Amino acid sequence: MSRFAIETVGLNHHFGSQTVIKDLALQIPKGSIYGFLGPNGAGKTTTIKLLLNLLQSSSDTIFIFGKELNSNRTACLRQMGSLVEQPAIYAHLTGKENLVNRCILLGIDKRKATEMLALVGLTEAANKKAGKYSLGMKQRLGIALALIADPELLLLDEPTNGLDPNGIIEIRNLMVELTSKHGKTILVSSHLLAEIERTATHVGIINKGALLFQGTINELHELSKPAIKIEVDDHATAANILTRNGAEIVSEKEGTINITYTGKANMGNFNSLLVKNGVTVYSIAPEKNDLEHLFLAITSKN
Question: 3-class DSSP state for residue 25?
Answer without folding.
Answer: coil
